[in-house]
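Slide 14.
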Amino acid sequence: MNVEISPSQVRGAAAAPPSKSYTHRAVLAAGYADGATVRDPLTSADIRATMRAVEAFGGSVAEEADGSLEIEGFDGRPDVPADVIDCANSGTTMRLVTAAAALADGGTVLTGDESLRSRPQGPLLDAIEQLGGSARSTRGNGQAPLVIDGPIAGGTASIPGDVSSQFISALLFAGAATDEGVEVDLETELKSAPYVDITIELLSAFGVDARRTDAGFAVDGGQSYAPEGGEYAVPGDFSSMSYLLAAGAVAAEDGGAVDVRGAQPSAQGDSAIVGVLEDMGAAIDWDRDAGVISVERSDLSGTTVDVGDTPDLLPTIAALGAIADGDTRIENCEHVRYKETDRVSAMAEELGKMGASVTEERDVLTIHGDETELSGATVEGRKDHRIVMSLAVAGLVADGPTTIRGGEHVDVSFPNFFETIEELGVDVVRDGS
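Slide 15: predicted structure.
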């Protein structure tokens, strides 16, 4: 689906979608449990991949009329799947489910689409081997398709921390269901650390204790997953909020604002977008008790942001940098190249098509706002939801309409994104209709 965004002003209130990160973990945790209700979930393409995996392991997932998910779990002992588990485009699913597969008494095969089959999984495979399982890439390159044989009993695994925090989260999830527990020793500095904090917070809500150690992380074995009252409510997603907040900061009507609901404080590292916007000079206010963030259009100035812990914010910050005065320097971003696409190059190239002046280095992306005049253009969404939504933000203030190819990929994390910004006043045309 091609989506055309014309220069627009925005105003009004919008609700952020539920957190993708929390929903993935809640669905899987309910699978590890005897069963649970997940309230206010995001039901997107990626989440459905995790739902299918829970069912492949012997659980069941029913979507209720109120949107909640009633999940019957496999109680810490996944069945050997009767078929290959297709994780589609969901890296979170593949990483979390790979460790779950190591608990099954037999072999599990995991694959995904072309993009997912290019993403690194090797360190997690090595960790499973260290824990007594068998884990291999069918092509011998550390990428899917993967073949996992268990069951693992637990132990200690050494793993790099600078490839994907999801490896650590996966091992903590599975470790609680082993006999011995799992200790994860980090070989390098941990990137995207807040995502492990999310995992620890979510596990705690399901009655599982996981903790940081001097060497990394640990979780005791023999624990049972059971949320209080048999249910868990998913908080709003700050990664998705970032596009709405950015839209308000660059395109709110004079005298108006964009109010984003669902912004209750949590362990989400991407709440850092509020501080980034403040640093750039945005008029922004966060009522934490009410869970509402209000932002007005402001004259933004470039800033320097380290995205080591917040990789998903890079596309949003890059779009803001193309609109701000001065340089916006995004540092510590090499790991952002290993997402659904190489998001560093993707933003550099697609913003460049719109007239942005960008300098791309391996670990740094600099957007030169003073040398940029954004003009409408035809840009590629790269089959990446975050690229699509960030380019839509840039299109709000470009000179002329911007056509984004592959707009349907917002379904991964924010299925009603275009409807939401349309309600805020954005001129949106889908496929020329």
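Speaker note: The chain has two domains: 3-17+236-430, 20-233.
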